[in-house]
Give the backbone structure.
Amino acid sequence: MNSETILATLKQLGYESVPASWYRHIADWDAWYRGSVPDFHSYTVFNGMRHVRCRKLTAGMAKNIAESWADLLMNAGLSVTLEGGPEQAFFDAVCAANNFRTMMNLYEEYTFALGTSAVVLRLTGVPVDGEGRLLEPGAVRPSPAIAVDFVRADGIYPLSWENGVIRECAFATAHYDGGREYLYLQVHRRDREEQTCLVENYLYRVPEGAADTGGAACLERANLNAIPVTRGIAPVFRTHSPEPLFFINTPNIANNLAPDVPMGISVFANAVDQLMDCDNIFDSLNSEFVLGRKRIMVKPEAVRSLDGEPLFDANDLVFYILPEDGQNRSTVQEITATLRVDQHVAGLQLALDLLGLKCGFGPSHWKFDAGHITTATQIITANSEEYRTQQKHQLVLESLLLRFARTVLRLGRGFLGLELDTEVPISVDFDRSTVENDGEEFERDISMLEHGILSKEEFREKWLNEDPETAKDALAEISSPLSTESPA
């Protein structure tokens, strides 16, 4: 579904979003992420007789960049801790039911590739009236549930924002059922009188062949119960809270392409030239071997033996049969080109170093060796550029996860009737296993511990990644006196 159609549909509903030109940036980043930029990877070359269509090889670095950042931030070592047994159990159950960890890692990758993604909460099976108000507060229907939707940048349409924070937003996602395509449109807006958030849900059927024609007229309004994804969702749902049910995720990078647009930019938005360099050199290296491979030129009389049987395999491209020219030349002539492999490898390594600098990894992040591009080291030093950039990106993700967990508790208490403490302390701990500390911070904390500025519990929580209860129990066990009595 193209952005023009969605923007036209929103306008038909009375909503305006960011300019359509912004989504062309997203389409460009998506092309690099896929490794197929039409005007760059597909091209023609004139060979003296005609134009020949060519396909440029790609090193796939845009995908590698986004995937690397996702793995550094949203990985198995990350934990969200709620200081309460029922609250932790409920949060974990919601995450498990929605495959949250796996999907969050995938969409963290989309975040860095396309600049923005969103996590959207919705409730199904909760009784509301025609205006979206809860009929029986705290009542539980047969199968109420909290669902989590994940949306890429090309499905996010801000409606209002303040200081770069999106306050109201529409989310468009494509769904397929029974061989038909549907567009599910969620509009999260604020009730100006009540100063609370509400959600409007719309479902459209996309006629065959109309997905890319543009214009709202090509869409057909459908009942929300038409497909399983939206079945049980109310057309209007009031949250009775000023806090929205969506959470916007972006790289922690300023949008220098359109500062007034409240969406993030791709982590490689300002490194497209370096991506071109990598693909140009990578493709040239391949061409060096294709064009420089050994060829053996043979005269026609060397092709067959006296009994007429062929001497060479006709499918072997090493051999090339010369035309009859009557010249007295060698019957078999070998041609071997000199390959410029070292120059290409050096050039590709330089391009990778520049790309790493532009994307926040610092120099020497990648190494081209034995025909493969690999991460030069699996350990990040605490004073490196990559570590500082990683900490900067963690600020956005940490804020998102904290607000997400708090909102899940609020929905569980307010709409599912569960006894949950919505003010329970919540913490997010990131994976530190790949970080090699230079010792300065550790020595400083030891000194603070010795001078009573830092408690033993705080020290264990930070350096052993323990929760407060575990740290307290461990210290109690260490300090307990050992029995010295001998058995009778």
Remarks:
- Residues 137-142, 483-488 have pLDDT under 50 and may be disordered.
- Residues 273-367 form one domain.
